[in-house]
Every structure is written in structure tokens, then in C-alpha cells.
Design a protein that fits this description.
9-stranded mixed sheet, GMP Synthetase, Chain A, domain 3, single chain, Rossmann fold, 25% strand, Luciferase, domain 3, 485 residues, 14 helices
């Protein structure tokens, strides 16, 4: 029998084999529910009919910006069944960004279940599946392997997000590398709390839907108690979280007095940190408190996962992101592209399958072959002849002020000389005097930021990284929010 040509066709094979197997188990507070493969197939068909009633047809690109991620997943399959291409967007992004990305992909419309978003011109209310009561009992996916199935978008952490269309054939190949090739290591029933606008989350959901494994979902609006309960679920086997959530989970467990003699989530086969730095004592503490199966991955949108740090290597090399995967060749190069020796910081260059790409980070390889990332190229500053990187300064500011998060960026100087360094700190704006006093007392004038901004909540990307580009734009448009030290 020939291999399926699309994700949808591969999913139908799984429905045929395991119709009564649970695909989704939802966790909210103390309650929840479940959906079998057959249930979800029905939801896809109802969603397809609802979209058809809205005029969606083959060849169109349709934006999806929902708060309900299971509905988004059903909508992706429904659009494929209609011959359309889904563009998954983050409902938390500024409406101008959502509309701009939809325009770049030539989307004919955007559907959302987020009422605040549907108040904007060009964003329609998501079709209500309950309005359709009858189905044909058949769900067919066109055999169109070369048609766009997905759009992979970079996080937009340091610049304008790049949008790359991916065909069904390419998407299936990527899923195969994850599930069969072992590119992402051990895996199983997945706990998921991230927005599907993050490409890594979609990959995990696709992979499990095609392999008969369960997805234990936590709503995107959740508290750490709900995430903790999901990770303690008897069927939970893996979870992928950004560092900000891993640190928050550790703090929640400590605050609740739940630290035990061993790791709390001892059933997990993998707890993966992806999308940013989780280094040093923070990493080793997380491994001790959360899971000894914790691993750190370093990846980019262009190349996928480049390296992994796990097991005993976390204890012996906690400041690295591991050794490059076997099929990657990593070079550290200078500004002109010339190779640098071990232990010298430069641009990270990844070579795979004959193609070279720079993820946009600075780092170095040590004598044992471990890769160390010191910061984004755009996060590496030189002021008054002193070089330093943003992550180091951010960590120092957090230690001094007790802030949960901090983001350091540079902005052009009004005088036209060296760029100014601005620290955006997650804290109550009314605490500005206290924060200034602490920074003056504990930070050297050579590395101390020129200005600070206090915000109750820092904006995040869909992968829960701090949205640096958005902060830079905000400061450029409203410079009065900055306070000189």
C-alpha cells in the first residue's frame, strides 16, 4: 500500500486503525474531558462544513487566530480537506502584526474566536461548529503533496518574523524525522500548554495524531497548578516548555512546599527545554526538582534542532547547549566568515545536508566539542570599549531587583553617538525609584543600562520568548516610557 501523500490521509489511517483510542485529554482546573480519534474526525468534518458555509474554497490561504487550540487543530485539517492552506497566527499578537502576516501570505481572511480580535476589520468570527448538525459521514483529503500545508514563521524575537510555506510532502518528511529518525529523542504521550502558532507545538501534535499517541492539553490561559496536574497525569510521558515556564514551574513547586526527595515528574521520558537559554544553577535545579529526563535543545527555524544537552552532561556542562547532533557540523566564524579556534566567541554557523545557515547567535565550541551560546548577535553590545551581552546583564538585573523577567535591548542615541542600552523590567511601574536605587548600588557604570522601563507584563512571542522586536518598536514610538538611571 502506498504511503499517504498528506497529513490528513495519514490521520485517516490512524482513525481506521484506532477509532476508539483517545487522542485528546483536556485538563482544566479539576475537570476535563476527552476526544477519541473518531470523535475528532467528526469535529474535523463539522468544521469543514462550517468553513464551506462561510465561502472557504480550494486554493485559498485562511488565517486562524484562536484561543482554543483543539478547535485550531480541527480547523487545520478542515481547511486541508477543502483544499485550502491554513496560516496559524498568535491571537495575542498586536492586530497590526496579525493582519500584516496574513497579507504577506495572501490570506483571503482570518478567523478567530477571540472577541477582542474580531473587532478589527479583516478578522471574522470563527465559524460555529454547532450550527452544522449533519455530516456526509465521509472525510476526504485531496492528494496534493506539493500544495502548501503550513507556514513556518520565525519567532520574531529580534526582528521581523520570516514566513516560509511548507508543502504537505515537506511537512510529512519533517514529522517522519521527528517520529522515526529520532531527531527529537524519546517521546510519547505529550502534555501541551503552548499555542499552536508556535511551529514546534504543531509538529508535536501532528506527530502524535499520526502515531496513535495521546495529547494531554492545558489551556493557553492556565496557572501552574493546572500544568502541574497535567504533568502528574498517569499517561503523561513528555512535555516541551520554554525556559520561562520551566523556571516558573520550579518556583511554583518550591512555593507550594512540594519539593520531594526525588524529581516530581518521575514518569516522564522527556522534559524538553526549547526556545531560549536554560543554563547553570537554574538548569541543574530544574533537573533535580522536576525531572531527571530534562534536556536542553538548541535549534533555529532554518535548521531545526542543532544540539541537545541531557543526562549526566547537564551536571558536567551546565552552561552549554550540548554537542551538535551527528548530522550537523558546527563552525564558529568571525565577521568575515573565517573559522575561529575553540573557546573563542564568534558567529555560530550550522551546516547540514550541504547547506549552511547562521541562526543569529554568538557562541563558541569548547575543547570537548560542547557548544556554548552567549547571546543573539543583536544582543551583543560594545559600549565605551567594554563588550557584554544582553543575557548576562538581564540575569544580573533580575538578581539585583528580584524581577521575574528582564529584557535588554539597544536603541539609537538621540545625540547620534553610541546606541543606548535600555532594560525593560517586569515589575510594578510604581517601584521605579526603588529599582533605580538598586541598579545604581549594585551595577557598574560601565555595564549599567542607560535607561529602564518598568512593565507589569512583558510581551511574549507564540513560543513564550520575550518579544524583543515589539519592545523596541514600543520604545521607539513612546520614548517617554524610558527613565534615565
Amino acid at each position: 500500500m502506498p504511503a499517504p501523500e498528506t497529513i490528513g490521509a495519514a490521520f485517516l489511517k490512524q482513525v481506521e486503525t484506532n477509532p476508539g483510542t483517545i487522542l485528546f485529554e483536556t485538563r482544566r482546573g479539576t475537570g476535563g474531558g476527552s476526544l477519541t480519534y473518531a470523535d475528532f474526525k467528526m469535529r474535523i468534518e463539522l468544521t469543514m462544513l462550517a468553513f464551506a458555509r462561510k465561502g472557504v474554497s480550494a486554493g485559498q490561504v485562511v488565517g486562524l487566530a484562536n484561543t482554543n487550540q483543539i478547535d485550531t487543530f480541527a480547523a487545520i485539517f478542515a481547511l486541508w480537506a477543502l483544499g485550502a492552506s491554513p496560516l496559524v497566527l498568535d491571537f495575542r499578537s498586536p492586530p497590526s502584526d496579525i493582519l500584516e502576516r496574513a497579507a504577506r501570505s495572501r490570506a483571503v481572511c482570518i478567523f478567530s474566536d477571540f472577541r477582542k480580535l474580531t473587532q478589527n476589520e479583516g478578522v471574522l468570527e470563527a465559524p460555529r461548529v454547532g450550527e452544522v448538525t449533519k455530516t456526509s459521514g465521509g472525510l476526504i483529503f485531496p492528494a496534493t503533496p506539493h500544495v502548501t500545508a503550513d507556514f513556518i514563521m520565525s519567532s520574531g524575537t529580534t526582528g521581523v518574523p520570516k514566513l516560509h510555506p511548507l508543502s504537505h510532502e515537506e511537512l510529512l518528511s519533517a514529522i517522519d524525522r521527528m517520529a522515526v529518525g529520532g531527531e527529537r529523542g524519546h517521546w510519547g504521550n505529550a502534555v501541551s500548554c503552548l499555542n499552536l502558532s508556535f511551529p514546534g507545538t504543531r509538529y508535536i501534535w501532528f506527530r502524535n495524531a499520526l502515531s496513535g499517541r495521546k495529547i494531554i492539553t492545558v489551556p493557553v490561559f492556565f496557572d501552574y497548578g493546572e500544568l502541574d496536574a497535567a504533568l502528574l497525569h498517569e499517561d503523561a510521558e513528555e512535555v516541551t516548555l520554554p525556559p520561562v515556564l520551566i523556571r516558573g514551574l520550579v518556583q511554583h513547586i518550591k512555593a507550594q512546599g512540594l519539593v520531594g526527595d526525588g524529581p516530581r515528574y518521575d514518569r516522564l521520558v522527556k522534559m524538553q527545554s526549547i526556545g531560549g537559554p536554560l543554563l547553570g544553577p537554574v538548569l541543574t535545579e530544574a533537573k533535580s526538582i522536576l525531572s531527571d529526563k530534562l534536556c536542553v535543545t538548541y535549534s533555529s527555524t532554518q535548521t531545526g534542532i542543532i544540539s541537545r544537552l541531557e543526562g549526566d552532561a547537564i551536571d558536567s556542562h551546565p552552561t552549554s547547549v550540548g554537542k551538535p547532533l551527528p548530522h550537523y557540523h558546527i563552525r564558529i566564524v568571525d565577521d568575515e566568515g573565517c573559522p575561529l579556534p575553540n573557546n573563542q566567541v564568534g558567529h555560530i554557523e550550522a551546516q547540514v545536508n550541504g547547506n549552511a545557515a547562521r541562526p543569529g547567535d554568538r557562541g563558541y565550541l569548547d575543547d570537548e566539542g560542547y557548544l556554548h551560546v552567549v547571546g543573539r548577535v543583536q544582543e551583543y553590545f560594545c559600549r565605551n570599549g567594554i563588550s557584554f551581552n544582553a543575557p548576562d546583564l538581564e540575569n544580573r538585573i533580575q538578581d539585583v531587583t528580584g524581577a521575574a523577567l528582564c529584557c535588554v535591548i539597544s536603541i539609537p542615541s538621540e545625540a547620534g553617538d553610541e546606541d543606548q542600552i535600555v532594560a525593560v523590567i517586569e515589575a510594578e511601574p510604581s517601584h521605579i525609584s526603588e529599582v533605580k536605587t538598586r541598579l545604581r548600588a549594585h551595577l557598574s557604570p560601565l555595564t549599567r543600562p542607560d535607561k529602564i522601563v518598568l512593565m507589569r507584563v512583558l510581551p511574549k512571542t507564540s513560543g513564550l520568548k520575550i518579544a524583543r522586536a515589539q519592545l523596541g518598536q514600543m520604545i521607539e514610538e513612546t520614548p517617554e516610557v524610558c527613565h534615565a538611571i
